[in-house]
Amino acid sequence: MFTRKMDPLVATGHSLALGGALLIPAGLLMGAHPVGVRLKGLLILAALVAVSAVGFSFYNQLLRYHPVGQIAIYNAFIPVLGWCSPACCWGSLSPGAICCPAHW
Questions:
Q1: What are the start-end ranges of the E strands in 1-104?
Q2: 53-73 pLDDT, tens digit each
Q3: Number of Cα atoms under 13 Å in the Cβ half of residue 90
Q4: Which of 11, 53, 69, 88 has the fewest CB atoms lying closer than 10 Å?
Q5: What backbone phi and psi angles, to 5 degrees, belong to 13?
Q6: Cα(90)–Cα(56) distance, rounded to whole angstroms?
């Protein structure tokens, strides 16, 4: 694989950019159209992109130095942390708020 020799941050950036570049035309072809785009929504989107990019970068960095077998067990935490982290970051009143003791 060519990504073994590539910096994990660069590889993560390439993979996320390629994924986004493929998803946008696919969504448009399926009939999606942006309506009512506001600055607040774009800022929230930028924050979510940043959180995702940092998480993938850390994960790719771990895979660079450790065997997949040692890291794979932590894949079970991805959905749990994905559900709980917005509650901890933004004080959501959704059911995810029960994960963060700071909101009790």
A1: none
A2: 887 888 888 888 888 888 887
A3: 14
A4: 69
A5: -60, -45
A6: 20
